[in-house]
Design brief:
The protein contains one helix and eleven strands; from the N terminus they run H-E-E-E-E-E-E-E-E-E-E-E. Strands 4-11-9-6 form a four-stranded antiparallel beta sheet, with no helix packed on it. The protein has a four-stranded antiparallel beta sheet with strand order 8-7-5-10, with no helix packed on it. The chain has a three-stranded antiparallel beta sheet with strand order 1-2-3, covered by helices on one side. Strand 1 and strand 2 form a beta hairpin. It is mainly beta. Helices cover 7% and strands 32% of the residues.
Length: 169
């Protein structure tokens, strides 16, 4: 089983060296990290588990107990964000606390947690970021109104990438 912090450290090490590919197996879990070719937009990192899981289920599990399964993370910079509103200095950015997959709703077919115009409090869950099959509920951390959703459902997000813009109350 690989911890998220270990995977991040391995990604940094591979990125800083001339190594093009790294593959590690530990306790029946395999982690493969490959640098992208110049023609490829992003690197794919895959840790394979014994049984695949169809769609993520919301599970409250401490981050330290993250089971290994699959993680994909872009190695290149995030795609250009849409033009932000002129008064963006007063807007609060809700950012991704980790590398993972962004989910706007708790399950397939369910309504999104929030949309443009939604009112939120500090504890309002705005999305899920999945990392290593661990579903991490992301809270707004500020009271206000969602002005813009910056990512799409199922999109890979990076650590620190803005997910939402909120106009604080």
């Amino acid at each position: 089983m690989f911890k998220l912090s270990e995977i991040k450290e391995l990604i940094k090490l591979v990125d800083q060296t001339s190594i093009q590919e790294l593959e590690i197996e530990n306790e029946g879990t395999r982690l493969s990290i490959r640098k992208p070719n110049i023609s490829e937009p992003a690197a794919h990192i895959a840790a394979q588990a014994q049984a695949p899981i169809a769609y993520p289920q919301v599970v409250a599990v401490p981050q330290a107990a993250a089971p290994s399964a699959a993680v994909q993370a872009p190695a290149a910079a995030a795609p250009a964000q849409p033009a932000e509103q002129a008064d963006d200095s007063s807007l609060h950015k809700i950012v991704s606390p980790m590398v993972g997959t962004f989910y706007a709703a708790p399950s397939p077919g369910a309504a999104p947690y929030v949309t443009k115009g939604s009112q939120v409090t500090e504890k309002t869950i705005v999305c899920i970021v999945e990392a290593m099959k661990l579903m991490n509920e992301i809270e707004a951390e500020v009271a206000g109104e969602i002005v813009e959703v910056l990512v799409q459902n199922g999109q890979l997000v990076e650590f620190g990438q803005p997910l939402f813009l909120v106009k604080p109350h």
